[in-house]
Amino acid sequence: MKPLRGIIQTAALPAMASLLNPLPAGINYNSTEVVFVNQKALATLPYYFERGQMSQVWGTVTSSPRVNSELSTLAKASFVAFDSRFFDILGPNPTLEKLFDLPEHNVHEAPNFLPAQNKVFVSNFNHTYEYLVDLSVEPPALQNLTTDPPLESVNGGFIHEGKLVVGTDGYRNSTPPGLYLYDPATNRSEPLLNNYRGLKLSTPDDLVVDQLGQVWFVDAPFSYVAWTYDNPPELAPSIYCFNMTSGALSVVDQSILWPNGIAFSPDNQTLYITSTPLGPDNSTENHAIVAFDVLYPHTLANKRTVYVPDTYFADGLKVSEAGNLYAAAGSGIDVITPEGDLLGKITAAGEVFNNLVFLPRGEILVTGVQGIWRVRIREQGIVHY
C-alpha cells in the first residue's frame, strides 16, 4: 500500500548532509551574501517536499525543519553558487545594489550601453519616453529620454556601430510592431522594418546583430497578449534574419512556441534562444534555452537543449567573453556554461529580473519589474560598441 501523502516515517530516513557547503578556503565573502549549495544533498530532499514552479529552489518546503532553515539561508543571499567555478566568476568582492526603485512594470527591457554617451538606454512602459542611466556620475543618475519621433514600447535592442537597433511592440492601432534605428548622437529614430511581405509582425522582441551587420530577432505575439497592440497575430512565432543593407527578411526557425531572449556566442557561431511559455497555468510547457549552429548567411542547424531554468523562465540573455550564459530568470540571473552547467545565481529576494546588459569593468546593469540594479563581479561580459 502506498503511504499517505504528508505522512513521513522519519525514523527510516538516513541523516541528510547540510545543503550548505563551506566557502572555499582563502575566500572572505560575507557569508550572508554568498552561499555555496551542496548539490549532492539537494539531490535527495527529505520527503514530503513541494514548491511552486514560479518560486526559486529555496522556496521549497520539506518535512525537515533543519532543511527548511537552510533553504531560508539561501533565500537571503545575493550570490548562490552551485559550482566552485562560480567563485572565479564572482572575484573577491561581488556586489548587488538596487540603483533605482521604480513603480511596478514602469521599467521594461532593452538595456543597452551607449559608449559615446557613457549611458545605458532602458525602455519604459510609458509610451512617451524611455530612460537613460547616466554612468558618468556616482551614484548613477536616471534621466528621461524622448526620441524624435518617439519610439513605442521598446522591447529589445542592440548597439551596432554606435547606433541602437530596437524592436518595438507597436501601440494599439496607431503604430505597428517593427525594427527601428536610433542614433544617440542626433536623438533621431527611423523605421527599418514593419512587415513580412505585407503581413504585420507580432512583437519583435530581443535581437542581436552579427558580424555581417544582419539583425537576428525573435517575434511572438507578446504585445497582443499584453494588450499593448490591438491586431491579432498574422504570423507564427518565428526567428528572423534581417539584412539591413538589402532589406531582405528571412524566416530561419519556427520550432519554438514563444521565442524571447537571443544571444550569440563570442565567435558568432552559436545562436542561443530562450522560450517563455511558462506560467501559473502551464508550468510543464517547454521553457528551455536552446542553441543552434549558425550557417551563414542565415541558416540555423543542429538545435539542442542547453539549459532548463528551474524557476520561472529565461527572458533576457547575454554571453560573457568566456562564453558563459547569463539568463534573467525570475528573481535571479542564472549563470550557465555553454554545456548547460548551472554555475550560480545572482538574486534579489522578492524581485523579478527581466533583462541585463554588460558594462565595462565587470559591471552588469539589470532591469526588473520594480527597478534597476547594478552587479559588480570579476567576469567581463561582451560589451558592444
UniProtKB/TrEMBL annotation:
This protein's source sits in the domain of life called Eukaryota
Q: What is this protein called?
A: SMP-30/Gluconolactonase/LRE-like region domain-containing protein
Q: Which InterPro entries match?
A: 6-blade_b-propeller_TolB-like (IPR011042), Oryzine_lactonohydrolase (IPR052988), SGL (IPR013658)
Give the SMP-30/Gluconolactonase/LRE-like region domain ranges: 178-358
Q: Name one Pfam family in it.
A: SGL
